[in-house]
Amino acid sequence: MDINRLEQQLAFIVEIDKLKQIIRQSYITDGTRNETDAEHSWHMAVMAVLLAEHVDQAEIDVLKVIKMLLIHDVVEIDAGDTYCYDTQGKQTQYQRETEAADRLFGLLPADQEKEFRSLWEEFEATATPEAKFAAALDRLQPLLLQYHTAGKSWQEHQIVSAKVRERNRHIQQISQVLSQLVEEIITDSVAKGYLNE
Description:
Hypothetical protein af1432; single chain; mainly alpha; 2 strands; 4% strand; 10 helices
C-alpha cells in the first residue's frame, strides 16, 4: 500500500468537508435556511442520474457528469460562492477559482489531481455534452429551489425574469424537454408573483 498516496487522498477528503460550510444564495425548499455547496452538489448528482434520459444527445457519460457535479464547486472553499447575478463578483471569479483549483486539487496524488482538474476545466468550458448537461443542472437545480420557495432569493436580490431566462438559455443546447420545463417555471413564477417581469 502506498501510504503517501492514501495520506494525500485523506487530506483532500478532510479539506472538502469545508464545502458543507459554503453558503449559497438559494434556500432549501422549506425556506428556512440557505443551502450549502455540498447540498447543492449532492442534489445535482442525483438529478443527473434521474434526468439523463432527457438529454438530446444519443449517448452521455452519466458517471462523468456526476463526477463533474460533485467537484465543480470544490474551488469555492477558497474562492467563495459567487452569486450567479453578481456582475462585480464575476469579474474576479475565474482568477479566484483557478487559484483555488491549484491548491485544492494539488492536495491529491498526481493522477487524481490531473483527472479532477480536467473535469473541473471541462465543466467550466461547457463544450462537451457532459459539461453542457452538468451546467444545465447547475442552473435547473437553483431554479427549482427558487420556485418552491416562492422566489425568496429572487425577491431579496430584485432579480427579473429576463435575467433568469438569460441564465438558463443554454439549456436548450442539451435538452428541449428541460428547456421547456425552465420556461414553464419562469412563466408560472412571474404569474404567481415569485419573479418580477
